[in-house]
């Protein structure tokens, strides 16, 4: 394995290994969506063809809260959203975003109740983000429902795609791990949130990539990194920050003080044993 001693030394220094499970905090009141699968916490991974998120709809959002939910329904090509309740937006932003492929994350503001006036199309993985400012005092949360638009066509992504969220201070993710190879046509995401999902200024997260083995033909199996930031001085979006191609033994992907999204995309040719993501926030 490439750089095994570096990986082992780094992981021992961190003294914490993060599993593939989502790390979640801050449960809200037990107000449920009527959909089959739902999340009541700040962040989570949803895999049902329909589901909902109910987060603090009648409670105050904390200053500097950061919550991310990812939705990957099998064979989905898009999603319809219905916003059932939306509290005060003072100091908060809620955004629905799509992983569209290399270099691109499309974002749509969630700013009113009712059905969104568009199907979020060409969207195998949906990302819902809640952001609050340091001055947020009276803002409330939201309830939304989603329904996947299912495709039987050839543009389906691998059902082995993995969506993962962690707010651990440090850790080591090996993907896919357990002696397995990743699969063709994957769209897998890894979200790095601050501890307790509360932003702390000048406390950057470093994410280091170490390759095991990726298909090294023409950079078809790639990793792209997005940062949540205000690009135009207005609403925050997922802004492309960096990328890495096969053949890169080791590289710092990101050093950013806010939310980080790492996206792994594969083609339909050879597969490999994957990579490591070593992360810490200081």
UniProtKB/TrEMBL annotation:
Q: Which residues form the signal peptide?
A: 1-20
Under the heading InterPro entries, the entry gives: CUB_dom, Sperma_CUB_dom_sf
Q: What keywords would UniProt list here?
A: Disulfide bond, Signal
Highest rank taxon of the organism: Eukaryota
Query: Which positions fall inside the CUB domain?
Result: 42-149
Q: What is this protein called?
A: CUB domain-containing protein
């Amino acid at each position: 394995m490439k750089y095994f001693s570096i990986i082992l030394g780094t992981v021992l220094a961190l003294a914490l290994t993060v599993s593939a499970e989502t790390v979640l905090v801050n449960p809200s009141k037990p107000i449920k969506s009527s959909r089959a699968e739902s999340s009541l916490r700040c962040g989570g991974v949803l895999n049902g063809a329909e589901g909902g998120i109910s987060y603090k709809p009648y409670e105050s959002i904390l200053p500097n809260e950061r919550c991310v939910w990812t939705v990957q329904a099998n064979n989905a090509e898009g999603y319809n959203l219905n916003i059932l309740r939306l509290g005060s937006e003072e100091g908060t932003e809620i955004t629905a975003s799509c992983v569209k492929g290399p270099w691109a994350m499309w974002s749509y503001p969630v700013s009113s109740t009712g059905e969104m006036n568009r199907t979020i199309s060409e969207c195998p993985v949906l990302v819902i983000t809640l952001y609050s400012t340091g001055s947020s005092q009276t803002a409330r949360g939201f309830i939304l429902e989603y329904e996947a638009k299912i495709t039987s066509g050839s543009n389906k992504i691998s059902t082995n795609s993995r969506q993962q969220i962690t707010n651990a201070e440090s850790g080591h993710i090996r993907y896919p791990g357990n002696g397995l190879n990743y699969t063709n046509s994957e769209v897998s995401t890894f979200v790095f949130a601050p501890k307790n999902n509360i932003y702390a200024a000048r406390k950057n997260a470093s994410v280091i990539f170490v390759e095991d083995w990726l298909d090294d033909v023409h950079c078809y199996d790639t990793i792209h990194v997005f940062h949540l930031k205000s690009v135009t001085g207005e609403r925050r979006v997922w802004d492309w920050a960096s990328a890495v191609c096969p053949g890169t033994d080791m590289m710092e992907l990101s050093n950013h003080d806010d939310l980080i999204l790492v996206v792994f995309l594969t083609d339909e040719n050879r597969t490999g044993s994957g990579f490591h993501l070593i992360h810490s926030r200081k």
